[in-house]
Amino acid sequence: MPAASLELERVTPNVFTTTRLRGCNPSFVTTSNGVVAIDTPQLPTRAIAMREQAESYGPIRYLINTENHVDHIFGNWWYRDAGEIVNHQALWDIFMDPKAALDPFDYALEAIPTDDPDAAPLIPNRDEYYANLPRGTVVFTGDLTLRVGDHTFHCLWTPGHTPGQLAVWVPEERVVFTGDTIFSGCQTWLMTSNVDQWLEALERIRALPDVDHLVPGHGPVVPLDYVQTQRAVLMRWKSAVADAVAKGWSREETIARVRFDEEFGPVDIGQGYMMDHIQNNNAGSLWDKLTALSYSEGR
Questions:
Q1: How many domains are there within the chain?
Q2: Spatial separation of the C-alpha atoms in residues 39 and 26, rounded to whole Å
Q3: Which residues constitute the domain of residue 241?
Q4: Same domain, 137 and 175
C-alpha cells in the first residue's frame, strides 16, 4: 500500500510539523546526525507517511513523546523500530493505559472509519498491540537533555495537563514543542489535569530565552506570547467553576451552566462531536477538585 500524502509545515529550515490532522501536531527536527521526532500521528497511514518523510532526511535517532494521551502516542506502533523512544517516567507508567476512563485503544480506532479508512488492515488486534507495545527505551525523571548532531533537545518536565507532560526546547531553532500545555485557537481539554501545575508549566515555558515559535499540541504554530492566552483560558475555567462552588451549585448545575463552547473556539480537527464531552468533563472535574479542596480545608 503506498504511503498517504502528508503536507508538512516548515517552521524553520530544520523543523517540520503538521497542524492539519486529526490528533496531535506530530513533528520532527533534522540535524547533522539524523532526525528527532516529537510525537506521532494518531492515524496509521499518516504515521507511516510522516516516518517516511522524516527518514528522507536521515535515520530517526529518537522519538520523544510529550504525553500519554492516545492522539500523541498511538502512532508509536508504526515507529517501533525507528530509534529510541523517550518518555518521562510518569508518562511511561500510564502509556496506553487500558484502565483509563476513556479506553485509549478503542478511542484511537474511532477515527479510522471517518479519517483513515485505508488504515484498517494496518492495525493489530488489541492483544497483539499490548503484547508488543513500544513504551520506551529512554525513561527518566525530572528533565533530560539530548545532544544529536548540531542540536540540543531539552526535554522539560512540565506536568499539569498530564503527570508526565514534556515540553521539548530546541534552542538552535528557537522552537519549543509544548505538547498539550498549549491548545492554540481550539478547545482546551482539562479533565484529569492539575490546573495549578499547568499554570506553573506555562510560566516555565514563558521564561525560556530566545524562543520564536511554539509548536502546540493542537492548533496553529504560535509565538511565545501565546502562553498568556493559554493562561487566561485556564484561569477563566477555574474561576468560573470556583464561583459556581461558592454559590452552592451542585455538580450537575455547574456542568449545565458553566460552558465555553463559543468563547474558546472549536474542537480541534475531526472531533467536533466531542464538544459536550469536553465542556461537561472540564466543568465536572474542576468541580470535583474544588469541592474536595474546600472540604479538606474546612475540616
A1: 2
A2: 5
A3: 234-298
A4: yes
